[in-house]
UniProtKB/TrEMBL annotation:
Pfam families assigned to the protein according to its UniProt record, in alphabetical order: AhpC-TSA (PF00578)
Thioredoxin domain boundaries: 9-165
Domain of life of the organism encoding this protein: Bacteria
Family matches, as CDD domains: PRX_like1 (cd02969)
Organism annotation: Psychroflexus longus
UniProt-listed InterPro entries: AhpC/TSA, PRX-like1, Thioredoxin-like_sf, Thioredoxin_domain
Name of the protein this chain belongs to: Thioredoxin family protein
Membrane-crossing residue ranges in chain numbering: none
Amino acid sequence: MSLTPSKMLKLGTQAPNFELPDSISRSLLSLEKLRGEKGTIIMFICNHCPYVKHVNDEVVRLANDYRILGFSFVAISSNDVKAYPQDHPDQMFKTARQLNYPFPYLYDESQEVARAYNAACTPDFYVFDESLKLVYRGQLDDSRPKNGIPTSGRSIREALDALLNNRPVPEHQKPSMGCNIKWRSY
C-alpha cells in the first residue's frame, strides 16, 4: 500500500460526464441521471483499501443524512481488478449489500473516469454544486486509521451545509489520504 494524497482538482471545474455500470443494479448509470438537486458527491473508493474501510460507516451516515436534503452520492471503483480481484464488481456488489450503501457503486473498468476527475487515491471525495461545478475536493475529515480521531465527515458536512445555506464553501481544503488507485499497466 502506498499512502497517496488527492491531487486537488481545480475548484470550479465542471464535473466530467460518465456512464458506468452499477455493481448493485447491474444497469448503466450516467452522471446526468445521478445528479442531485442541491449537489452531487462523487467518491472514488474500493473494497480492499484500509483507508476506505476506516471511513465506510461514516460515508453511509453522511449519505443517509444528506440524501433527504437533495444531495446525491455516487461511489466509483477504478482499480485494476486483475491485480486486485477483491475490487471486482461481484465483490463490489457484496460489499455494497453488506454495508447497506445508500448510493450506486459504479465500476470504471477503463479507468477513464478516474483520469477525468484526476483521482489519485481511495478514498477521494468531490462535491459539486447544483450546476455540477466543483466546490470541494479532498478529505472526509481528519480521521485516519490508527490516529485516534473518530470519523465525523466534518470536512464534507461543512461543504454541504454551506451549499444548503447559500454560503460559499471555504477554499482552504485538505487533501484526502489513502491507497493509490491501482492503475492498469499496459
